[in-house]
Amino acid sequence: MAFESLTDRFGGIFKKLRGQSRLTEANMDAMLKEIRVALLEADVNFKVVKAFTNDVKEKAIGQDVYNKVNPSQMVVKIVHDEIEELLGADQTGLNYAKNGLTIILLVGLQGTGKTTTAGKLGKYLIEKEHKKVMVAACDVYRPAAIEQLETVAGQVGMTFFSMGKEDPVNIASEAKKKALNEHFDVLLIDTAGRLQIDEALMGELKKINHEVHPDEVLLLVDAAAGQDSVNVANAFNHDLRLTGVIMSKLDGDARGGAALSIKYLTGLPIKFAGIGEKMSDLEPFYPSRMADRILGMGDVVTLVEKAKEVMDEKEMEKASKKMLDGDFTLEDMLKQMKQVQKLGSIGAIARMIPGMPKLTDEQKQRAEKEMKVFESIINSMTPYERRHPEILRYSHKNRIAKGSGHTNADVNRVIKRYEDSKRMMKEMKRYSGKNGGFGGMGGMGGLGGGRF
Fold first, then answer.
1. How far apart are CA 43 and CA 54, in angstroms?
2. Among the four residues 10, 59, 335, 366, which has the most C-beta atoms within 10 Å?
3. Domain boundaries, the chain
4. Both ends of the chain: CA-CA distance in Å?
5. How far is Cα 300 from Cα 351, in angstroms, rounded to an integer?
């Protein structure tokens, strides 16, 4: 996951700092040296690293950190603010046309996932921004590029426009006319890439740019490209006057150096980040939230937003009340687990919860396996057994174990987990004195700690 190695390094650095009885210039310099090494290992550009550490030290001195009661917290705050500044400080949304059609030109090198990202962006515009979207196929060179884009467009509900292998400039122009005539809100133009920047590529893109006058010219860069992405961004920006960057494959780069370098060195904001292979795996890029994640502070806002998108709020409230009243069933628990699974992997969810210990790969795999086993065992029960697990005897458990492909011991563990969660909810209600507010996540209780 993005920035994972950097998060681990920062965690160790700040743990050492908190262990100091007082902050001195010597241990401040030692900390900055460690931060410098951590950033360089994360493939952050040397100029960026130098400016970053100088700014942190300058602000620490300016705020008289050495004489504060809790200097380590102040240093963390300064580092957080500086990371946020590197990433762009404020979230930068799309520039929509004041009236009528908004045109977005997608450009980039071959292999960065431009066509897939066009689909992801289209899905975001349709579902989150409630826009009527058309996509134009202007990559007439790559084999099957047009067919791929047509498939992607169909998956997300975009109108597809193609003129086959005709001149890309003419295709873009005709797509604009059609989008205007049919009152579309947004026209996405998927352009051709190359393995490297060349005169022919730039010449074609400049002609398209001049012909359609886009509101946004977004460069797709591969997060794993590291500092090379900065050179690519500068080259495209020189000829096309880019308006922003989409960082693809951010989920697959544990270092994150490209994201931390590109805004500082090019002045271009990161507008979106690709975080997975599914069409829904494109997020607006929020520098403050990303700074929180890098420093291991979680990202509750994004987690809550995702929960609102994928979970049935009324069902969750109803389930939460049943849990706190102590009358929820295995059926309810399974429903909640399925709702939670919609948020993403166990590891992704854990990273967004402040204070949550980092899960090892083994713990993540065990937790994912445990949820699957839990589900298969409950599905092997009759509806009455799910609602009244207290009736289960050896013969019932034996039948359930065989039906699910597991053992009697596994069935007993599921029932024990259910009973423990039920007991825990009763305790929570007793202490809170409220009928709600725990988010209905009881089905997750203790996952990863057990064994199946």
1. 18
2. 10
3. 4-87, 102-285, 304-444
4. 26
5. 10
Q: 317 vs 138, 182, 373, 377, 451, CA distance in Å?
A: 47, 42, 26, 25, 30
Q: Which amino acid is at 160?
A: F
Q: Which CATH class is domain 4-87?
A: mainly alpha
Give the pair of three-digit tokens for residue 419. 């009973």
What are the φ/ψ torsions at residue 244 (nearest 5 degrees)? Answer: 175, 180
Pick the CATH number of 304-444 from 3.40.50.1000, 3.10.180.10, 1.10.260.30, 3.40.50.970: 1.10.260.30
Among 304, 354, 340, smallest CA distance to 445 is for: 340
Phi, psi angle pair for 91, to nearest 5°: -65, 130
**Phi–psi pair at 401, nearest 5 degrees:** -60, -45
Closest CA to 359 of 413, 296, 287, 277: 296
Alpha helices, DSSP H, located in 182-256:
199-212, 228-240
Comparing C-alpha atoms, which of 28, 78, 52 is closest to residue 260?
52
Average pLDDT over residues 432-450: 45
Contact, 282 vs 124, CB < 8 A?
Answer: yes
What are φ and ψ of residue 134, in 5° steps?
-120, 145
With tokens 């919860």, the residue in question is 353
- Cα(112)–Cα(135) distance, integer angstroms: 18
Q: Which two tokens stand for residue 449?
A: 């700690």
* Span 218-266, pLDDT tens digits: 999 988 887 788 889 999 999 899 999 999 888 766 567 888 899 999 9
pLDDT band at 52 (very low <50, low <70, confident <90, very high): very high
Q: Rounded to whole angstroms, how far apart are CA atoms 249 and 66?
A: 40
- Give alpha helix (H) positions in 311-356: 313-325, 330-341, 346-351
Cα separations (Å) of 326 from 133, 387, 420? 48, 13, 11
Name the token pair of 165: 């292998």
How large is the average pLDDT for residues 263-277? 90
Cα(350)–Cα(106) distance, integer angstroms: 33
Single-letter amino acid, residue 315? E
- Give 141-182 pLDDT, tens digit per residue: 999 999 999 999 999 999 999 999 999 999 999 999 999 999
What pLDDT score was predicted for residue 452?
42
Helix axes 168-181, 199-212, angle to 10 degrees: 20
- Rounded Cα distance between 43 and 226, Å, is 6
Question: Which of residues 113 and 209 earns the better pLDDT score?
Answer: 209
